[in-house]
Amino acid sequence: DGGITQSPKYLFRKEGQNVTLSCEQNLNHDAMYWYRQDPGQGLRLIYYSQIVNDFQKGDIAEGYSVSREKKESFPLTVTSAQKNPTAFYLCASSIEDRFPYEQYFGPGTRLTVT
Amino acid sequence: GNSVTQMEGPVTLSEEAFLTINCTYTATGYPSLFWYVQYPGEGLQLLLKATKADDKGSNKGFEATYRKETTSFHLEKGSVQVSDSAVYFCALRPYSSNTGKLIFGQGTTLQVKP
What we know:
The complex is a heterodimer. By secondary structure, chain A is mainly beta. Chain A has strands spanning about 5, 10-15, 20-25, 30-35, 45-50, 55, 65, 75-80, 85-95, 105, 110-114. By secondary structure, chain B is mainly β. Chain B is built from no helices and twelve strands. In chain B, a hairpin with a 5-residue loop joins strand 5 (about 30-40) and strand 6 (about 45-50). Chains A and B meet through strand 5, strand 9 and strand 10 of A and strand 5 and strand 6 of B.
């Protein structure tokens, strides 16, 4: 079955440590996205990538970094510079050349930093 | 700029009641419109979509009609079930966008009681 995999589902880290969240898709989608969701709030875009080896900052990129070395993979690193990293992180993908470009989401990773 | 406004929740209904969740948008041209649903602890699932004025998206008993004149895309269901309890997000993709970036509303929590 095609879909988006995020691992792990729960992640715990100590303050000051960098942590990398995994996102893999086998949908052959061109574009991938990372969102952050805080309790009771909507989604905020962190980074997105339309093609391999290229990505753009979203609305809240500070303290985060990404890479897109393969079409299937778009890992997100939460660095120690991120002031409030505890949140639910969602990865999504979409086809760039098929209107209307709806996004498909993974199951999410809940990151807790103490 | 582009934006999406949803009615505040939580919306609490009894089983078999009629559901309406209001969504209005601000955008130029003809954006594509989407409703996503998020069950507790999970990622978002695409519920339905519409791409032009007067289009009606429908899925699993839910419906929404793209109203250009009122810039609205209200979600409706004739008879809700306890299993419909979730957070519902309205989203748009700007007409002139060259990416798949979506703009999300804040989400509306629906609680259905037996």
